[in-house]
Amino acid sequence: MSGWTKKRFWKEVAVCPCAAGYTVTLDGRGLRTPAKAELVVPTEALATLLAEEWRAQGEVVAPETMPATRAANAAIDKVRGQREEVTELLAAYGDSDLVCYRAAAPEELIAREARAWDPLLDWAAHRYGCRPLTRSGVIHAPQPKRLLDNLHADVSRLDAFELTAFHDLVAMSGSLIIALAVLDRYAEPDALWQASRIDEDWQIEQWGEDEDAAALTAGRRTAFLNAARFYFALQA
Question: Which CATH number do you get for residue 154?
């Protein structure tokens, strides 16, 4: 696949093993990324996910309906060559994580945050040997170096494909801890998405939500869930 094809030209879509993993063929021809690299993925489950997207296309190809294919392209064309930079970018979220910054008022919001986020901090304490510190308000306060080093080590173990999915999990939720909890299967991805929405949902309850904001939220949720699906296909 060299760039996006506007019109569907293929009849048969197949998953094929190859020396480096698995690829998807259209009428016997292997897919290529926009940068014209061979589109080879590590697992058959992920290749099957890509193949399903290509089979589902109508007469006109709709790239927005192909999140797994787009993520695989990004992993190969972009993240693979910038893995260290992406790792540093994402690991930095650990020092200002969403779930560590708590409301000072009202009491009901404080309680909601605690119910949703304290169990995640308990999980992080068990996994990383150090409980993240919480604070009221938005003024930055650093986390313990031991915690940050252990979080960074976990992120640095991800390969280019895993890191691509992880990027969307972090970016959509605003939380490194929530994203890592997805990878650890601490809870279902949709439940963890909802945990990232505590403050926003509170504001909606108080003031309502306009259509544009609702559409943006729906798009972010879809991207978060697609990223989780992509990551889990890499583990199959």
Answer: 1.10.3580.10
* pLDDT tens digits for range 128-163: 999 999 999 889 989 999 999 999 999 999 999 999
| Model confidence pTM above 0.90 | yes
Domain identity same for 19 and 94? no
Quick check: is 6 in a domain?
no
> How would you write 34-93 as a 3-class SS string?
CCCCECEECCHHHHHHHHHHHHCCCCECCHHHCHHHHHHHHHHHCHHHHHHHHHHHHHHH
**pLDDT given at position 1:** 41
CA dihedral (47, 53, 58, 63) positive or negative:
negative
Among residues 77, 106, 128, the one where a domain terminates is 77
Tell me, yes or no, whether 3 lies in a domain: no
Distance CA 179, CA 216 (A): 19
- The rounded distance, in Å, linking the Cα atoms of 153 and 217 is 31
Q: Answer yes or no: do 141 and 228 share one domain.
A: yes
Residue 212, H or E segment: helix 211-235
